[in-house]
Amino acid sequence: MVGKGLGAWLLLPLQLVCLVAKALVGALLPSKLRDLSGDSVLITGGGRGIGRYLAREFAKRGARKVILWGRTEKCLKETTEEIRAMGTECHYFICDVGNREEVYQQAKAVREKVGDITILVNNAAVVHGKSLMESDDDALLKSQHINTLGQFWTTKAFLPRMLELQKGHIVCLNSVLALSAIPGVIDYCTSKASSFAFMESLTLGLLDCPGVNATTVLPFHTSTEMFQGMRIRFPNLFPPLKPETVARRTVEAVRQNQAFLLLPWTMHILIILKSILPQAALEEIHKFSGSYTCMNTFKGRT
Ligand SMILES: NC(=O)c1ccc[n+]([C@@H]2O[C@H](COP(=O)([O-])OP(=O)(O)OC[C@H]3O[C@@H](n4cnc5c(N)ncnc54)[C@H](OP(=O)(O)O)[C@@H]3O)[C@@H](O)[C@H]2O)c1
Hints:
Layout: H1 2-28, E1 40-44, H2 49-60, E2 65-70, H3 73-85, E3 89-94, H4 100-113, E4 119-122, H5 137-165, E5 168-173, H6 186-205, E6 212-219, H7 243-255, E7 260-263, H8 267-276, H9 279-289
Parallel strand pairs: 1-2, 1-4, 2-3, 4-5, 5-6, 6-7
Bound molecules: NADP nicotinamide-adenine-dinucleotide phosphate.
């Protein structure tokens, strides 16, 4: 019995070395990509911003159906027409993901009108853009309802059928701010950190569910309307990502079944520094890079 336990302890480091080597080789060699031709993809916040680019990218990569959720009909309609013109079946539904009843109701409507969803992309989010004391309570609640709890409801609505079919993927457009928060957007950072914990827990919980997986994408600042007005101290050193790049890398990560993706890769350095440097040193980095004050000119996007 003791020998068996000891064997397992000795085996673990070997297994870890093999898995790290496999991941390194996998990152260098072209890997087999998931065929999307049997997939119906639902994107929350799919009418504009990164969501719109995701819709284009999924359609371009051969998804069978694309379904868009959002609150603003005009941009949902425009994106739907664009995706249809690409030759992909596309539908939109008005749905506020922060409203639980509406999510369950619209999920039912999607199943009746379009059929099963096999890829759910939780992309919708808002940012209030004020400090804690300047924010009114309802605005603080709103970002938690949309950015975090919204994912509880959408996932609860679509995951059970994915588990039955043994085919599914839950995707979360998170943010690097989930792992390294800044002042001035306290509501957003809190909601993204909590959404990251949700995805970590979900990803591990899906380990024994064949055919169903999860991907969390953590991008750096991206040039959409979301953070318009934010002041960057070194824009040439830290240029914003393009939304099309975020969309392309997200779809690639889904097709490669990659669990977590930090964009750009240099953000790994920030995360490593965060875990080893003393707080005073981190504060100097924040002051120097301007992330300490970059939100002073920012008005929020709700
Ligand atoms: N832009 C960045 O710098 C950046 C960086 C890292 C991560 N991200 C993440 O990437 C995702 C997309 O951001 P983005 O840059 O595309 O932002 P965006 O341009 O402001 O778009 C936000 C999207 O979310 C939708 N949305 C907001 N509230 C909603 C609600 N209650 N119900 C349904 N849909 C809702 C909006 O559509 P309606 O207004 O029509 O509802 C819109 O389609 C977000 O999760 C964001 O946190 C963005």
